[in-house]
Each structure stands twice: as structure tokens, then as C-alpha cells.
Amino acid sequence: MNIRTSRKETGSALILSLIAILIMAGIGGALFSLAISEQRTTQNASRADAVYYVAEAGIDDAVNKLKAYAATAETTAPYELPDAYKSADFAVIASILKDASGNTYNEITGTFQSGTFTVTVTPAYQGIGNYKVRSIGEANGEKKGIETWLSAANVDVGLGAGLFGKVFMYAGGNVTTDGYKSKTGAYATQAVNKVTANGKDYLFANMTGSIGSNGAVQVGDPSGTSSVVIYGNATSGPGEAVTVNTGSTVFGTTTPAATAKTIPSTDFTVPATATTIAGISGSKNIGTVGTTTVLSTTLLESKSGSVINVSGDVILYVSGNVTFHSKSTINIAAGGSLKIYQSSSTAKLDINAQAVMNVGMDPSAFGIFSNVATGVLNGGADFYGTIYAPNTDMTINGNSALYGSTVASTIKITGTADFHYDEDLAATTTPVITWSVKSYEQFIVSYQDLQ
Q1: Where is mean pLDDT largest: 21-30, 421-430, 431-440?
Q2: CA-CA distance, 194 to 6, in Å (whole number)?
């Protein structure tokens, strides 16, 4: 055996082993470096996402403030809020700023998690129109932005019909509809017009008691046992039918609409100025003469024989049931009004027989804006007011007269009910503002953005 040769082979093997170890170490180091790089990349991406989340929170906050402001704004230009609403929350929208070029804008600032945001609304809010909402978020030493264009559109909740079912409209029983003008005087003084049909003379005020739906409309019962008289049009949705059953009459047209009506859900953003009170159960005085009072409560229950006296303009946000028992009364003082916003979809809306609603007999002074699944109006006493419940299946029972307007998901009328659409509501009803997003884009904050 050659000892020198053996040593050479051993030395070569050692060198090769060292080289292999170095290569493995290099690969390990590269993999470790790659892992660190990927971790940094992930962390950077996470930080970038976090900044965008902050900017997005700013967009959400601005939109919520705009919605709340619009929901309580007056109907006349320039859509100024009553003083009662100008709290710190609404002040940012009520406050109009100007840039160096004289362009108006609103500015909203706030925090989200560990970051802060600054949002501008251009031009400053002034009612229906298009607005650029630009939010810059800052977190973890980074700044990112989101820009969106919003469109604020005015939806006519009158819809050209006194009774409108978003999905379906059924007028059964013995029902008569017509229209009148509450500002002109009492309904009885206007119901002097006469029309003859089927050998009968019918008295009515105006031929404006129209009914409608985005779906089908059924006038009268299929059995022919009911007698429904519509002094106005019966209008179904596009491609849907208007069925006029035997024994019932529509004096206007029965042509389907060319396009469906937009029926937005009611926005139930409670203003920051709202005063929280205990649930209302039984008799109570609310409001102050000459002022606007905003209240938030969990329950409104007008018990049998109780009286709710309303002074001034009262806006009441109710998170639970709204119930009016028989022989209860809402007394709205002259010049005052009561608007009830009901937010819970699982709560009850139940107006029982002989509940005297709005003894002042001005439909524009009393309104219920609800989001419940089902609602019932049982007759027995006259109802003066508006009901706007686009997601509610509403049933109108019993013997009563309704003055005003009603919008619901479905409307089913049974028994004997006279409905009189108040044409003056078109001029006094607060417009419903519906919002839609036209564009949405993320951007990197530049030097110009910070000026």
C-alpha cells in the first residue's frame, strides 16, 4: 500500500467535504436571506394593507357623516341643518372650507386602530350631486390613499301613487281611493265631484288616488265579492299585470310602468345630537315649542287610553317595537311634527283599532319610517300621516279612513278602508337621498397630496 497515495486521497476527500460544507452553508444562508426577505416583504405588504384599511375607514366615516347629515337636512337649498343638528359630528359637513383656488370642500379627520386619516369631500356637500371623497391614511410610518366618487341622488318617495307596494299591491275588501289637498281644507269639503259607473253615482275629491307597484297589482278579490273603486291609476311594474276583478273599478289607466321605481331603504343613522331617553310606555309629553328635538329610545308603546303630546318638531329614533293600542292618542300641537324612525327589522310595527293618530289631521306632520319585516294597521279610527316602510309586508285591516301616503314592500288591504292621498305631501315630504359609488381607486401619496 502506498502511504503517500492514501494521504493524498484523504486530503482530497477533506477538501471536497469542506467545499460541500461551504456550498451547503451558502445555500442555507441564501435560503435564510430569502426567508428574511420574504418576511420583510410580507410585513411591508401587511403594513401597506394596514394603511389602506385606515384610509378605507376614513372613507366609511365620511360617507356615514354625509348620510346622517343628508337624512336630517332641510328640503330647501342650500340644505342647511337646523341648529339642533350642528354638533361636533355634523359640524365637519356643515363647515365649508375653501382651497387656494376657491373650491369648496369638507374635511373629516379621525383615527382607526393605530393609524389616522384625513378625508376631503369636494365640493362641500350641498345636496344631490357628485362628490370626490379622498382619504389619506397614515400608519406605521407609511401613507396611502383611496379616492372614490359618490353620487347623491334624490328619490321621489311619493312615486306618483298614494299606495305603493315595492313587490306587490293588493286592494281587496271594500276599498275606495282618491286624492285631496290637505292645505286647501277638510276632505269633506273637497269630495264634491261625481262620476257614474255601472249604474252608480260615486262622489270623490280628486282623481289622484292612484295605487302602484314594481310587481303585480290586484284590484278586488278574485271571487268577485269585494268592491274596490280606484279614483286614479293602477300601475304595475314593467311586464307585470294589473288585474281588475269583477265588482271593482279603476277610473284611471292600468298600463304597466315603463321602468321600475327606485325604492331605497331608509337610513337609520342616529344623529350624535340625539338625547337617549327611557322607553316610552303610556302617556308622555315630548318636544319643546319652537325647537327641533331629537330623541333615541328602545320602545314606543302608546297604551290604551294614553296620550302622547308633541310640541315643536320631534324626531324619534326607536330601536325596538312601535305599538299603538286601541283608544290611544297622538296629539301634535299646531306647527309641530313627529317623525318616527324604527331601525330593527325584527321589531313590531302595530297600530291597533281606534288609535287616534295625529289629531291635528295634517298628514305632513306625522311620519313613520320603518325597517320591520311585517306591519299591521288595524282600522277603527282615522289615520293622518305617511308610512315609508320599503322592506315591510304591510296589512291594512278593518274599517277606517287613511289620509296621506303609504309605501311598503307589499300592501294588502282588507275590510272597508277609504284611502285619500294628500297631494300636498309632494311639496312637504323630505326627499330621500340615495348614495351610489361611481369609482374606487387606491393611490400612493405624493408630495402634492400632502400640500
Answers
A1: 421-430
A2: 129
